[in-house]
Structures are given as C-alpha cells and as structure tokens.
Write a structure and sequence with these properties.
This protein is an all-alpha fold. Helix content is about 55%, strand content about 0%. The protein has a two-stranded parallel sheet with strand order 1-2.
C-alpha cells in the first residue's frame, strides 16, 4: 500500500519562471531515462522477484523514484508557473506571449498550449512516454546490469540539465537527484555480486570453444589491443581471414534436412525461378533510356 507524504523528498526552490528550461526538464519526467521509467522498471521487477532481499531493494528504490518524479515534476511546474498565469489571463499581447513561451528556440509553447504548463508525460521533444522504455527480461543477472546502466544514463542527463541552468535552487535539487542515481548504481551492483553466479547471465554456460575468444573483426589502421581482448578471461584473438573462418571448423554453409515431398517441391520452385545469364532482353528501362537519348 502506498501512503503519500505531502512534503517532497528534497526542497525545491526556483528563482524565476523559465518555460524553456521547464521543457528541457521534461526529459527526466516523461523521457526514456526519466524517473517514471525508472520507477516502473524497478516496481515491475520487484513484483516478479523471488529473492526477498532483492525484492525489498527493488521496492525501496522504485518507491523512491516515484518521489523523484514528484521533485522533478514540481521543478517543471514552478518553472512554468508564471507563464501559466499569463497565458490563462491573457495579460500580454498574443505575439509577445508566443515569443516569451518559445524562448530560445524550444517547444515550450507547445507544452503550454497542450498541457497548461503542467509536467506532462512526454520527453523534451514531445514524445509520449511509453512502456517500451522498460527493457526488463526477467533474469536478475541481466536486469541488474541493465538497471546499473539505466541509472548511469539518468545521471548523465541530470549532469547535462545542471549545465544548462544558472538557477542555484534548480541546480541544487538536480544535484540531489543526480547523486541518488549514484547511490542506486551502488545498490544494484552490490546486489548483482551478492549472487553466487552473476556471470554469464542465465543458467546455460557458453560453448567453451568460443567464450574466451576475441574476434578482431574490424582490421586496419587503429587496431588496438587491451584487456578487452587479451586480458584475463581471453585465451586468443581470431582475425577473420579465409584460413580462420568459419570458427567452428565447418564449411561455413547452411543446410537443412527435408522430406522427399519437401525436396520435390523446393526443386520445382528453384526450376521455375531459375535465371538464364545468357538472356539480355530489351526492358522498360532500356526503352526509357533510348527515349531520353532521342530527346537530347
């Protein structure tokens, strides 16, 4: 059961109206790296989690992400509040109002007209939030890694938002939200490595002939070696030449076992569609080129 506390997790102080900045902040409200996506990601993972420790952690973080959604939404609402009043009461002339809402070339005028300055579930470009942002696969070793990456992406977006505003109160609140992304990364990584078997994800082991092999598939100037190809866990590097392929030692072709009936049908299909490389009939393209030459 959710029990809402009317006080924010972190105090929001906005020094002045700025609908253009509010529009950018929508990225963390209804965007793919935003707080709603994070809350839904962890909440749905928690419902299916069998481990009591991870379940509790996911529910804790999911609920905190909802509180972060409230913080970023409040920032958006405060940044839009002045323009919201002016638009509702038509204080300015129409052209001046449009220029004020449009700001520095952004679409804040769209969010004002469509949503009245409220924190809509869209990203900063107006894309509607959708559940496709949630990439949970239902395997904790994979999902926890994805969660770590999701928190990292969210942190980067917060850094970029901090860099586009001089409002000290907004920067302070965004810094708090950014910092919590770091804390969540730590929790997810601790949970990942608290498992007896965290790599590779899933139950089945990889084919030992290929798990420790690095394929140098992009060759030429810029070839570089490092721990990603010659470090611990890698036994050899393969350069895909004619001598090295296929890597399984086979002939590199594909084949399928067919019944007699299937083989007869496919032979007929091949025969019916067989091409004759010696035929070169006049085509519509040829006639078109002749007509074009005649008009020159």
């Amino acid at each position: 059961m959710f029990n809402h506390n009317k006080r924010l997790q972190y105090t929001v102080r906005v020094s002045e109206s700025n609908p253009g900045l509010a529009n950018l902040m929508l990225e963390q409200f209804g965007g793919p790296q935003g707080e709603l996506a994070a809350a839904m990601r962890y909440f749905t993972q928690a419902l299916a989690e069998e481990d009591p420790g991870r379940k509790d952690m996911l529910l804790d973080i999911a609920t905190e992400e909802l509180s972060h959604l409230e913080v970023i939404g409040s920032i958006i609402a405060m940044l839009n509040r002045g323009a919201k009043g002016l638009l509702a009461e038509t204080v300015d002339q129409q052209a001046e109002m449009y220029r004020a809402l449009q700001g520095a070339g952004n679409d804040s005028h769209v969010t004002q007209i469509l949503y009245g300055g409220g924190p809509a579930l869209v990203n900063s470009a107006g894309q509607l939030w959708n559940a496709g942002y949630i990439d949970t696969i239902g395997e904790p070793t994979a999902d926890l890694r994805s969660n770590i990456a999701a928190e990292a992406r969210a942190k980067i977006v917060y850094e970029r938002l901090i860099n586009v505003t001089e409002d000290s109160g907004v920067r302070d609140a965004l810094t708090f939200l950014m910092t919590r992304e770091v804390a969540h990364q730590k929790s997810f990584e601790k949970a990942l490595y608290s498992m007896d078997k965290s790599f590779p994800p899933g139950k089945l082991p990889g084919d030992p002939r290929f798990t420790d092999v690095y394929v140098n598939a992009s060759r030429g100037e810029g070839d570089t070696t490092g721990p990603w190809c010659e470090g611990k866990g890698f036994s050899k590097v393969i350069t895909p030449t004619e001598d090295a392929l296929p890597v399984d030692g086979g002939d590199g072709h594909c084949e399928v076992g067919l019944s007699a009936e299937e083989q007869t049908a496919i032979d007929a299909l091949i025969l019916r569609g067989k091409s004759d490389p010696t035929r070169d009939p006049v085509t519509g393209a040829d006639l078109g080129m002749l007509q074009q030459d005649a008009t020159k």
